[in-house]
Amino acid sequence: MKTFLAIGQTGVGKSSFINSTFGVSLAKTSDYEACTRVVEHYTYSTQLGNLRIVDTPGLGESTQAVDISYLNMIKDYVNYNHVDYYLYITPLNETRFRSTEISTLTLINQFLHDKIWQSAWLILTFAGKVPDNRKTETIDVRAGDIYRLVSSFHHFPYYFNGFNKVLVIDNCDPNWGKNWTTDLHPPSKLLME
To answer: Quick one: which of 135, 132, 134, 129 has its CA closest to 166?
Structure first.
């Protein structure tokens, strides 16, 4: 069974990504408030085998002290030896690399083991909200900003050589990919590879 840990700011679609991946409503979602306040483990049997995704509380919603308590909770409840991949989830339709996201990534790097970036995937959500003619440029800018910041964190032996995979999805609209066929949706098959 492959295990994935999903982490990111609040409201970026971690829980809806899980639901989209499995094709069923497992994780609670809301348009109005953060739903995940504890570490949740979701295991689901797919045609390709069993998957486990660990959902984590959203960061960046409140104070740095709250984020630190959530990151400590993740450290307490997640066995890093059993995690195959770390999913950093962020919205593609965010037009600026905001200081809150920079702070979130910096805290993730400080509180979780440096080697997480060696097996990290970048998940860009809400891609359907970006016009097709701007999608490639937007992906390059968003992924580039995150890549440069994460690259600046690392020292021997955990140099960051890029994300293992970059998934571009719109986890709120299962039909969105018809006009942009290079996107990977649904991601469940890819997660099993």
So the answer is: 135
The predicted-structure confidence for 104-162, as pLDDT tens digits, reads as follows: 999 999 888 777 888 899 999 888 889 989 988 999 899 999 999 998 887 656 678 88
Cα–Cα distance, 116 to 107 (Å, whole number): 13
Topology of the domain covering 2-192: Rossmann fold (3.40.50)
Closest CA to 187 of 1, 4, 10: 4
**Domain range list for the chain:** 2-192
CA pair distance 93, 134, nearest whole angstrom = 10
Pairing outcome for strands 40-46 and 49-55: antiparallel
Which two structure tokens, joined as six digits, stand for 80?
């890093």
Closest C-alpha among 89, 94, 106, 70 to residue 12: 89
For 18-48, what is each residue's pLDDT tens digit?
Answer: 777 766 565 555 443 444 557 887 887 777 6
Per-residue exposure over 171-186, b if at least 16 CB sit within 10 Å of its own CB, e if not: bbeeebbeebeebebe
